[in-house]
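Posting for a labmate who doesn't have an account.
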Amino acid sequence: MRIVRRITFLLAVAASLTAYDHSGLADTGPCHSMEFERAAYTICKVDLHNHTVRLYWNRSDGTPYAYLSALPRSLEGGTGRMLFATNAGMFDSNLKPVGLYVEQGRELVHANTKSGRGNFHMMPNGIFYISADRAAVAATQAFLKQQPQADLATQSGPMLVIDGRLHPRFDRRGTSLKTRNGVGVRADGKVIFVISQEAVSFDAFARLFRDGLKCPNALFLDGGSASSLYAPTLNHTSNIVPLGPMLLYSRQREEHLSNNQCRTQKERERVKEQAVEVRLAPGAFTE
């Protein structure tokens, strides 16, 4: 009877693992719609363990990409397929980032700590960055104090949420309503990109990140016509106006997954094979 119980257990495990594997094939993509406080948003969740985020600004000839639809459809060597792309911070009339810009570990534009007018200078502004496989949003002064070794970084402003608190200048009664997009990082490390599907206030947008998406820190990327999302699976087309920095999110190919994921996949296959071997073994059902 012990053999029968073991066979039953192994077959049940194999069936559940097969179902798990097939469930991964029905990938609906990282983006979906969400309603919060009667406003509609598109939410795109990023897992850096399985996917890659890249910053783009200029082509190899020095000219800006300018349009999300012009970005590469796959990474170098075909190692990943684009899932979505979005604008990645503010820029000047020449499409040059107005603040810190780090692409593949190279600082191409220095951090901007000057005073000025406009959303970028609504202090504190902040920086979204990725270092190794960890993403974070930090106020600019905190980032400069910590000096993390960033593989990717973009500066924008204002901060929407700072350590669980809304930006001090936001007013729940604010009447400035625009399409807005931003980025936040949850406590579990997941990166959340958001673009509103309608005009919203800064305060409402910040509450979405803090209360609806549970991001203790979040950064405004831009608003109005510059807020753009290219997501073919959701029929989101390219931007209307030319953009400066842009973020691209792609799925890694299976052979580029982490060693832990590969080990997990091998373990699933080993258990399934073991179950089949026991099921086919002659005399397996005899006591």
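Reply:
Got it, the structure tokens are right above this. The chain has a mean pLDDT of 82.
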